[in-house]
Amino acid sequence: MDSQTTTTTTTTNSAVFVTGDRSPATPTITRTLRLIQEQNDDPVKKIQAAKEIRRLTKTSPRLRRLFSDAIPSLVSMLRSTCLEANSAALLALLNLAVQDETNKISTVDAGALEPIITFFQMGNQNMQEHATALLATLSASPVKRLTIGASGAIQFLVKGLNHGTPQAKMDAVMALSNLSSEKHNLGIILQSQPIPYLVNILKTSKKSSKISERCTGLIESLTDFEEGRVALTSEEGGVLAVVEVLERGSPQNREHAVGALLTMCQSDRCRYREPILKEGVIPGLLELTVQGMPNAQSKAHVLLRLLRESPYPRSELEPDTLENIVCGIISQIEGDEQSGNAKQVLADMVQVSMEQSLRHLQQRALVCTSSDAP
């Protein structure tokens, strides 16, 4: 929790002060706080005050602290029958919660989750987008992730992966990624069957994009469950989408991808070895052992060993298969780990393996009907 969260606000007859630096607020801030907290129901004034809070707190951590007392009133506006009041309050709460742990917790504690869920049922795309953005921000608080998971929000976030606007999809992935840090939430996410939507986002997104990284990270977490592994292999192009991320993703994304494939293979090598191999994973794995981040390199080495150690007898009549090439690579690395020549040997073998895989890769390219979005 950052140091900003220890400050509080006090009100006098003439001004509002921030405890800690005793700097007076402007008359505009004082008036805005009073308007939002007034008991009389003047929706026009409250909407104006909410919009002013949103404007003032857009970039100011200090003003987010100063306006924290407005949170209960803004949450009450979420229950209004006026759509404009709902929207103004949502956006004000969103700005108040950004990079402010205390305001995140206060928003949830004030009862914001229940009205937020109702906005997903309204059929209003703008309200759904605002609600998703607020959930993505609130879910950044580890303290409230279980509460958010138990609120019923997850099923709507998963639906947003399929039907939401591009921004809503990004926010939904972020919220689900945050919530997935709690194992109980992971189970709820899995029950909502997100794998087809995550795979579709991977197919249509740049492999190095943030949304792709979040999707692959979530898939990696879901492959800890047998239901997640089955869902990925059952989805057409599911394993291929992860392999393509492994080949062309950002360094972090490639680590997520190899982690997901490794989890699958370690859980049941006989079942998942062939589905992984048939998507031409070997060239990307070999490159990862040379160019990946340390954790990704380690995972790639382990996965290569699992893929080469077939539970069935290896044919002596196929010395040039990729499987045997990998076997030779691993043995050279293991025997020459301290040598400066090891990486060069591996790099040379990567080229050989890619040439061996060329026919498969060309066939795979013919059946790919979608390309990366710009």
Produce the secondary structure layout.
Blueprint: E1 9-11, E2 16-18, E3 23-24, H1 27-37, H2 43-56, H3 61-66, H4 71-78, H5 83-97, H6 101-109, H7 113-120, H8 125-138, H9 145-150, H10 153-163, H11 166-179, H12 183-191, H13 195-204, H14 210-222, H15 226-234, H16 238-248, H17 251-267, H18 269-277, H19 282-291, H20 294-308, H21 322-335, H22 342-367
Antiparallel strand pairs: 1-2, 2-3
Helix pairs in contact: 1-2, 2-5, 4-5, 5-8, 7-8, 8-11, 10-11, 11-14, 13-14, 13-16, 14-17, 16-17, 16-19, 17-18, 17-20, 19-20, 19-22, 20-21, 21-22
Reading side by side through the largest sheet, how are the strands ordered?
A: 1-2-3
Secondary-structure element order, N to C: EEEHHHHHHHHHHHHHHHHHHHHHH
Q: What's the total count of β strands?
A: 3
Q: State the helicity in percent bands.
A: 55-70%
Number of helix segments?
22
CATH architectural designation of the largest domain: Alpha Horseshoe
Overall geometric form = elongated
The oligomeric state of the chains shown is: single chain
The chain-level structural class is: mainly alpha
**Highest-level CATH class of the largest domain:** Mainly Alpha
- Our Rg estimate from Cα atoms comes to 26 Å
Q: Would you identify the regions where 5 or more consecutive residues have pLDDT less than 50?
A: 1-24, 313-323, 333-345, 367-374
| Distance between the ends | 37 Å
> What portion of the residues fall into strands of 2 or more residues?
under 5%
Arithmetic mean pLDDT? 83
- Major β-sheet, in short? 3 strands, antiparallel
The CATH H-level superfamily of the largest domain is Leucine-rich Repeat Variant
The figure for the number of domains is: 3
The fold-level CATH name of the largest domain is Leucine-rich Repeat Variant
